[in-house]
Each structure stands twice: as C-alpha cells, then as structure tokens.
Amino acid sequence: MKYNFDELVDRRGTDAIKWEMLGPHFGNPDAIPMWVADMDFLTAPAIQEALQARARHGIFGYTARPAGYEDVIRRWLYGRHGWQPEGEWLVHANGVVQGIAIAIAAYTDPGDEILVFPPVYHPFFGVTEGQRRRIVESPLVFDGTRYRMDLDNLRTVLAEHHPKLAILCNPHNPVGTVWTEEELRPVAELLLQEGVYVLSDEIHSDLVYPEYHHVPYPSLGPDFAAHSATFYAPSKTFGIAGLRASVAVIADEERRTQYLAVQSAFGAGHMTAFGMAALMAGYGHGAPWLDELIAYISGTRDLVMNTFREEIPRIHAVRPEGTYMIWLDCRELGLDNEALAHFMYQEAGVALNDGSGFGTGGSGFMRMNMAMPRALVTKGLDRIKNAVAARTHA
Ligand SMILES: Cc1ncc(COP(=O)(O)O)c(C=O)c1O
C-alpha cells in the first residue's frame, strides 16, 4: 500500500467534534470515539497539497466555481458509478444536509408530508420537523442479515398519505445497504406514479465495498432524473466534512431555479475557497487514494465482523455493503436504550451512536464507525468484549 492508514494521528487541538465532544456527549472523555461519520485518516495527499497551496496565497475572498468544475465532477461520477449528469444540472451546496434543507424549503410548504425510510440518518427528521413539515415513515425490514425497503408497506403508506417529497439514503446510513437497481426501480416507479419528488442522499456512494455497485438514482432514466435532486460530496469520501463542499444534481430546470432562489434567499450560495480547492483536488486526483482506503476499510470490516461473530456473539453485526459504519444488533443483551448507552459509554468505554436516534427500528441497536486505524478499532472491540464478558459473568 502506498498510503499508511495505520498511522495514529493525534487530532487533539483541532477542535474535532469526534474527539473533543466525548466528555460533553458521552460523559466519558476517555471513550474510544467510534461515532460521528468522520474518519481518523490523513486525507489524500492531492487534497493536502491543494489546500497548502491555496493557504500560501494569503487572500481568501469570495470564490467562484473554478474552471473545469463541471468536468471534474462529471468525470468523477462517471469513473466511480458509470453515469454522469449534464453540466448545467450541477448546483453547489455547503453540505448535504444544508442542500436537503433548502430543497425542502423550496419544494414544500409547512404542514406537508415528507417520506423517510427509518432507521435512517437522524438529521432527515430535524430538517423536516424543524421546518414544520411532517414525517411519514415506511420502515425498512430486517431479515436478521440485511435490510430491505418494504414495497407493500410503501404502497399502503402512499395510499393513506400524500407526501410531496421522499428522502432516500443511498447507500443507506446507518444500516449499510447499497440499494440494487432491482430494489430501487420499483420504489422509484411507485414514487413517480404518485408524483412524489425524490431527494436522494448519495453522500456515501463512493464508499462501497468491492463486491457491490452504487446505482445513482437519476441513472434509472430520464423521468426519474427529472423527478429528483441527488446529493454528492467529497466530504465522506476523503474525510473533509469540515470544508463544507457538496454538489446537488437537479435535472429539471424549474426545480433548479426554485432551489437556487431559496439558496439565495438564505444567503447560502457562496462556496468556501478551501472547500472548492479540496473538491477539485479530490475528485480530480484522489481516486488512487480512495481505492486504497476502500481496500483498508474492507479489511477492517472483515475483522469487525469476525470478532463479533466469534468473540462477542451476543451482539450481531450487520455486514455493511457500503459506508464505514457497522450497525450492531445489541438486543440480545436485554438492555433498554438508556441502559445500553450507559453500558457502551461508561462500562465498555466506547462512544457509539445510539440506534434509537435513527428512528423507528433503531431501539436496541448501536452504530459503530470503523474508519480509524485498525489498532484503535481493535482496542474498541476489546473493550466491548471485556464489558460483555464482565456482565455475563457478574
Ligand atoms: C446520509 C448522510 N447525509 C448527510 C451527511 C452529512 O452531510 P454534510 O456534513 O455534508 O451536511 C451524513 C453524515 O454523516 C450522512 O451520513
């Protein structure tokens, strides 16, 4: 390997939420931080160099789209996912959640219903209810191994409710499913038939394990492209979430105009100088680094899966197809959510995301982030193993 993902980099002193908020969030500043979707690896050298070069200039004024912006993004999407949007479909967003929030403001009114598929990335609830829109749910179903969307339930929900928007998470955080075309298409057809516009959050699409393939929602066909806004970002891909650079793909001109009008109304149209430099460098030159990262995390995933299966069998890890998260079924421990959180944070000493925060279907689960040097992951697993053993033998 050319890049060293085993290197332990001290992040203290950088105000990293993942590390600095352990005390306030978990009441345990010594917990191993395996929560928020943020990686403990040095980013791609191409990005580091581009940022250093930009910093050396010394003037950091308002920043326009660089020459080649559309080409770099289109080439990236084609190279990774075999599909590319038209250049004029691309709209900047300072973060995917911000983009989704703007789309909600642009396409719905207070009181309107918005469909989600829980358990799911929790800010989908916040941006919806925070804008006084109402959540409608079509929960995923879990067969003990993998999560799927439930078409029958979706039909019933669509017969009873009239959501204006659906927010899809593709690949799905926290359960790690990479939706196949066979799974996506019938859902997309139902939504199209009912006139539901789709926001497809594809922020994790570059982090898909080698045996799986990401299907961009708009690649399903022109009708689906016209009825969706899809969100991409280099932030998870390269571990640069602090730089706030994301992309919305909005094919329909009228929808794009509505989106841009709300973005402008909130004064949210400017991109950051550093975010733009990083996006261009990552999408332009970061592919070899990403390929090695995926190989490394793939190895870590196998290690985590084996450890739970062989050494901590009371916790069932759901094998992710994408994302660097592992969704842990802890229900066999027989603890309620509060006790489970206390067990993980205080007794074991690992900071994981409480599954109940992801909505329906999340109780009794925890989400573990494994995007860190393997030595730290192993330490976290040892802590969980010892704490489970101590409880079992107590
Ligand atoms: C599905 C999903 N969407 C969006 C985000 C956050 O994106 P941003 O920081 O660009 O708002 C995350 C971060 O974990 C995520 O998992």
As laid out across the biggest beta sheet, the strand order is 2-10-9-8-7-3-4
What's the assembly state of these chains? single chain
CATH architecture of the largest domain: 3-Layer(aba) Sandwich
CATH topology type of the largest domain = Aspartate Aminotransferase, domain 2
How many domain regions? 2
Distance between the termini: 44 Å
CATH superfamily of the largest domain: Type I PLP-dependent aspartate aminotransferase-like (Major domain)
Query: Major sheet: size, sense and barrel closure?
Result: 7 strands, mixed
- Helical coverage, percent range: 40-55%
Number of helices: 15
Number of strands: 15
Structural class: alpha/beta
Topology order in helix (H) and strand (E) letters: HHEHHEHEHEEEHEHEHEHEHHHEEHEEEH
Describe the structure.
It is a single chain. With 394 residues, the chain is an alpha/beta fold. The protein folds into two domains: 17-44 and 288-385, Aspartate Aminotransferase, domain 1 (Alpha-Beta Complex); 61-285, 3-Layer(aba) Sandwich (Aspartate Aminotransferase, domain 2). It is built from 15 helices and 15 strands. It has helices at residues 17-20, 22-26, 45-57, 69-81, 96-107, 123-129, 151-160, 181-193, 222-226, 234-238, 253-265, 273-285, 287-311, 337-348, 374-393, and strands at residues 32-33, 90-93, 113-116, 134-137, 141-142, 147-148, 165-169, 197-201, 228-232, 246-250, 316-318, 325-329, 350-351, 353-354, 365-369. The chain has a seven-stranded mixed sheet, with helices on both faces. A four-stranded antiparallel sheet has the order 11-12-15-14, with helices on one face. β8 (197-201), α9 (222-226) and β9 (228-232) form a beta-alpha-beta unit. α3 (45-57) runs antiparallel to α12 and α5 crosses α11. The termini are far apart. The mean pLDDT is 97. Bound molecules: pyridoxal-5'-phosphate.
